[in-house]
From TrEMBL:
InterPro entries: Cupin_8 (IPR041667), JmjC_dom (IPR003347), RmlC-like_jellyroll (IPR014710). Pfam families: Cupin_8. Residues 112-269 form the JmjC domain. It comes from the Bacteria. PANTHER family: HYPOXIA-INDUCIBLE FACTOR 1 ALPHA INHIBITOR-RELATED (PTHR12461), HYPOXIA-INDUCIBLE FACTOR 1-ALPHA INHIBITOR (PTHR12461:SF105). This is JmjC domain-containing protein.
């Protein structure tokens, strides 16, 4: 068994403190959204939850994943990692609800999954009755709907508050330092945008992935019911399993960095292009340069340069970010 994730009772409806929303370790928030009308409908029945969602539907289309019953809900690659074990289709949201209803009683249904869909675009008015106050944070609110699915372990750059609105979900989390033990797949061909672990948590193949045993020793896990939520800090690897025939998740993403900052994943890809295959001594020299200018930066690295002459070493702001981005685009033309 994985270690349990720390829990806090949030059923009193009190605002979430900043200390929790800036934490660097995960926490389960029991009862945080138990008062939502969506949750009350889901606790009544799948039919009631389905009817509640349809109240807000206004002819929007969504990207839906469809997989054969044989994949058992695992959103993943095909056998040789040249593609995926599901198809993507743009369909009406109510058609997804119809399909979930049609397969509700199947012992082994096809996999149906709508991920990361902006709530305000798909279900306008839903957040007026079902929302979480996050202070001054400009969070992106998304909805995830499907049947029994398994989403491989992956990380997200933003902090994540995930609220279970219908069904039950099992969250298995790994700290960022377990990267090497999770056997991550391709960086540029991914099931849903983020690189994922190739290990099947339902049946780990320790002969093929022996270091996963170490990752599992650091895993944390919790099962959430409708009304519960979990805070997943930035960069924590998380595997999510939906356990019922009808599941709805609402999540909020926000970054603790200015909007003008690009994703570091872009830097990683550029580093693969420019540094990974350098001779070892040169890679070590660049490691020192990055340590000096980036990972241990405290402002002193440019203190000996007059302020007006610091250019990209000056504190970054929106205008500076635009100039630096234009400079990079120009440098990359070849």
């Amino acid at each position: 068994m994985a270690k349990p994730i720390a829990e806090v009772d949030c059923s009193d409806g009190a605002p979430l403190p900043d200390a929790l929303l800036t934490a660097t370790t995960p926490v389960v928030l029991r009862g945080l959204v138990a008062h939502w009308p969506m949750v009350r409908a889901a606790r009544e029945s799948q039919q009631a939850a389905d009817a509640y969602l349809r109240r807000f539907y206004r002819d929007a289309t969504v990207m839906a994943m469809h997989g054969a019953p044989e994949i058992d809900g695992r959103i993943f690659y095909n056998d040789d990692l040249s593609g995926f074990n599901f198809s993507m289709q743009q369909v009406r949201f109510d058609a997804v609800l119809d399909a979930l209803r049609a397969h509700q009683g199947d012992a082994r249904p096809p996999t149906l999954y709508v991920g990361s869909t902006t709530i305000d675009a798909c279900l306008p008015g839903f957040r007026a009755e079902n929302d979480v106050t996050l202070g001054e944070r400009d969070a992106l609110a998304s909805i995830w709907v499907g049947n029994r699915t398994r989403i491989p372990a992956h990380y997200d750059l933003p902090d994540n508050l995930a609220c279970v609105a219908a069904g039950r979900r099992r969250f298995t989390l790994f700290p960022p330092e377990q990267l090497a033990n999770l056997y991550i797949g391709p960086l540029d061909l991914t099931p849903a945008g983020q690189a994922v672990s190739l290990v099947d948590l339902a049946a780990p193949d320790l002969q093929r992935y022996p270091r996963f045993a170490t990752a599992w020793a650091h895993a944390q896990q919790a099962e959430l019911a409708a009304g519960d939520a979990i805070f997943i800090p930035s960069m924590w690897w998380h595997h999510i399993e939906a356990l019922d025939s009808f599941n709805v998740l609402v999540n909020y993403w926000w970054r603790q960095s200015p909007a003008y900052m690009d994703t570091p994943a872009t830097t990683l890809l550029h580093a693969l292009l420019t540094m990974r295959d350098l001779p070892p001594a040169q890679r070590q020299a660049w490691q020192e340069i990055f340590r000096h200018y980036v990972f241990e930066s405290d402002g002193s690295e440019a203190a000996h340069i007059p302020e007006a002459a610091r250019h990209v070493l000056a504190p970054l702001d929106d205008a500076g970010a635009r100039m630096l981005r234009a400079h990079l685009l120009n440098r990359m033309k070849r």
